[in-house]
Specification:
This protein is an alpha+beta fold. The protein is globular and about 80 Å long. The protein folds into 3 domains: 110 residues, Immunoglobulin-like (Sandwich); 97 residues, RNA polymerase II/Efflux pump adaptor protein, barrel-sandwich hybrid domain (OB fold (Dihydrolipoamide Acetyltransferase, E2P), Beta Barrel); 435 residues, Up-down Bundle (Amino acid/polyamine transporter I), CATH 1.20.1740.10. It has 25 helices and 16 strands. Helix 9 packs antiparallel against helix 16 and helix 13 runs antiparallel to helix 22. Keywords: Cell membrane, Membrane, Symport, Transmembrane, Transmembrane helix, Transport. This is AGCS family alanine or glycine:cation symporter.
């Protein structure tokens, strides 16, 4: 029996060797070998590179990177994060593939720290930007399109060209195949280009042979979105859109945006459109017509409003809007404006409660904000445990947000922008940070009174500079107002799939407005808690105007400047650089003025957020003056750090804390909504009966 078993084993082994040998030889002939060069050129973050050299198999090779910005055809993935693993699947022409994972080693402390924090950023983003509707399979988040535009090959909005259609190779309404010649195009420099079909489908021509497709000297062409398109292809079947790395593009509906927008819409209806009915009274309060000098508090309604606006009118209004318009096109402007309108009601509620539940100690120092109304407002409703937990969570997030998004991010971006205008500052971020910290320190050491005095002067100046500059751009192009607003409304309701379609443009616009105005975040309630008033509802009305200024005026101005100058079509440049280009296209020296405005925006944001962070800090660590001084020193240290080094992941993490503050805050607002409505009714009754204090009118 043993001999039989041994014979069977030997036979099986021989057969295995016999049949496996050719396969091994075939694999060595067709197998792919990948050599990687890991490049970390500097000590700065996010500038690493992975370069691959592939041998074996059959060319051409395709590279499926986990980095979505790297094309399938590229063997090099650039601008990646040091210390973070990246995967690539290399496939040859025969379909053979190999999977590799690489990590570029970090050199500097900032690179190491950035790589460590990045997973935390990804985790936080997964929560804030989680799509509940896709998770429940209520819709397919993949972006599909039924058609594609046929554009002028290699067209760029930065090129001053006149393009003429020389001839069509195929007739109108003809079925075409992918790769088929469609048209010959000639520019005014004598250069000829051929447009090819990118997919199978039916061709619809927009213009006739011999006609001009796009003329960069005509402002109407510059403003109109898609003016460089000469035809469209209606696909045989809907096609998904892809990222450069081959991943399907998706429209996510972030939970944080839903949370903020639903809250703002709820309170708008709950309070009977107070954002419309109370707007006139909001202006009156800002003008000081109801300022009672004997009321408890330390700053006027206008100063509280200026402090809150200074914290929100910042880089987001310039850089953030430019990114939103680049992603969502002109149509994002409409949804951004609408979200700002609803956000006014959310500000009304949180600022009312900020004053109502504030605490003024025997020294006259004021402690207020969401920490107070979450704790004591919910305690009144027998929810002491929940209220205390929400208040502590809010305070923790408030401290982190003040040091990151309200400080380091502002200092970092302010230095980068000012550096472009003042060459001698290049490479001297530390020295800039020291100077900036001294400037900020001179204001915040004096507390809320000092902050309010500065913001009440800086906010009007910076707003006037920016708005006047924007109006000049619009005025120069006044004849194109109709074209611009057509682009906005058409883009809002019938957006191209390339911009994410209707849903994509909607989310981009709503997201920018929600992030910009900070309505629902609760930060403004901290500033308003210091107002001189006997009626908390009055401060709710005073706060109404803040999202109007921040989002409906300043953000919209930025968007209109980009649209009027045709920069909404630019995809290669984003952020402040794009806005700067838009201004420079009409006023060559305006980028210098813009740099001053951005510096003021950053400065005013920082001094306001220093107060928000300090009140969060004192809620957690005690209300003594020593505790306040310790926080102020810490804040100034972070100013220097922010200007000196690039801390991408750290800034992203702390910036997202601002958004996360809305979770505990809005939960409390929902619970206390009925209380605010009753207080509002009582206030309106007193206002109608002239029972409120009014500043006596003076006669000359």
């Amino acid at each position: 029996m043993r001999k039989i078993v041994l014979s069977v084993l030997l036979t099986c082994t021989s057969l295995s060797l016999l049949f496996s040998q050719p396969e091994d030889e075939d694999y060595s002939r067709l197998g792919l070998n990948v050599e990687a060069q890991l490049i970390n050129p500097t000590k700065r973050i996010n500038d690493a590179k992975i370069s691959l050299k592939v041998t074996g198999g059959k060319a051409p090779y395709f590279y499926k990177w986990s980095n979505q910005t790297t094309p399938l055809s590229s063997s090099v993935s650039e601008n990646i994060i040091e210390g973070i693993p990246y995967q690539v699947i290399v496939t040859d022409a025969n379909g053979a593939s190999i999977t590799k994972t690489y990590k570029v080693p970090s050199k500097s402390i900032t690179e190491i720290f950035n790589g460590i924090v990045q997973p935390a950023v990804d985790f936080q983003a997964a929560i804030l930007f989680w799509d509940p509707f896709a998770a429940l399979n209520l819709y397919d988040p993949v972006i599909y399109t039924d058609e594609a535009e046929v554009a002028i090959p290699n067209w760029s909005p930065d090129k001053d060209r006149i393009y003429t259609l020389q001839k069509w190779y195929v007739a109108d309404n003809t079925h075409i195949q992918k790769g088929e010649k469609l048209a010959k195009i000639l520019d005014d420099k004598g250069n000829e280009t051929i447009a090819y079909a990118e997919a199978n489908g039916t061709l619809t021509q927009y213009i006739n042979a011999g006609e001009i497709i796009y003329d960069s000297t005509k402002q109407a062409d510059v403003i109109e979105q898609g003016a460089h398109n000469l035809a469209k292809i209606t696909f045989d079947d809907p096609q998904p859109l892809y990222h450069p790395n081959g991943d399907k593009r998706k429209n996510n509906i972030p939970f944080i945006v839903v949370w903020l927008i639903l809250g703002s819409i709820f309170f708008t209806f709950k309070l009977g459109f107070v954002n419309i009915k109370g707007f006139k009274h909001s202006i009156q309060l800002a003008q000081g017509k109801f300022d009672n000098p004997n009321a408890p508090g330390t700053i006027t309604h206008f100063q509280a409003m200026a402090t809150a606006v200074s914290a929100t009118v910042g880089l987001g209004n310039i850089a953030g809007v430019a990114v939103a318009i680049s992603l969502g096109g002109a149509g994002a402007t409409f949804w951004m404006f609408l979200a700002g309108f609803f956000g006014m009601s959310l500000k009304f509620v949180e600022c009312t409660l900020g004053v109502k539940y504030r605490h003024i100690n025997h020294e006259g120092r004021i402690f207020g904000g969401p920490m107070n109304y979450l704790r004591y407002g919910l305690e009144k409703r027998n929810m002491k445990g929940l209220g205390k937990a929400l208040a502590i969570l809010f305070a923790l997030l408030g401290v982190g947000a003040s040091l990151g998004g309200g400080n380091m991010l502002q200092a970092n971006q302010a230095f980068e922008i000012v550096e472009t205008q003042l060459d001698f500052l290049h490479g001297h971020g530390f020295e800039f940070g020291i100077g900036f910290a001294l400037l900020v320190g001179a204001v915040i050491i004096g507390g809320i009174n000092s902050i309010a005095k500065v913001t009440s002067k800086v906010v009007p100046v910076m707003a006037i500079i920016y708005v006047v500059g924007s109006l000049i751009i619009i005025g120069v192009n006044y004849q194109n107002i109709g074209t611009a607003f057509t682009a906005i409304f058409e883009g809002a309701f019938s957006a191209q799939a390339l911009k994410g379609g209707f849903l994509g443009v909607l989310i981009v616009g709503l997201q920018r407005a929600a992030f910009s105005s900070e309505a629902g975040v609760g930060s403004a309630a901290i500033a308003h808690s210091a107002s001189k008033t006997e009626t908390p509802i009055a401060d709710g009305y005073a706060a109404l105007i803040e999202p109007f200024i921040d989002t409906m005026v300043v953000c919209t101005m930025t968007a209109l400047v980009l649209i009027f100058t045709g920069k909404h079509e630019v995809s290669e440049v984003a952020g402040v650089a794009l806005t700067s280009e838009a201004f420079a296209s009409v006023i060559s020296w305006f980028p210098s003025v813009l740099a001053v405005a951005v510096f003021l925006f950053a400065f005013s944001t920082m001094i306001s957020w220093s107060y928000y962070g300090m009140r969060s800090w004192t809620y957690l660590f005690g209300k003594s003056k020593k505790s306040e001084l310790l926080y102020k020193i810490l804040f100034l240290v972070f100013v220097v750090v922010g200007a000196s080094v690039s801390l991408g992941a750290v800034l992203d993490f702390s910036d997202m804390m601002i958004l996360a503050m809305s979770f505990p805050n809005i939960i409390g607002l929902y619970i206390m909504a009925g209380e605010v409505k009753q207080d509002m009714k009582a206030y309106v009754k007193k206002l109608k009966n002239n029972e409120l204090y009014r500043v006596p009118e003076t006669t000359d």
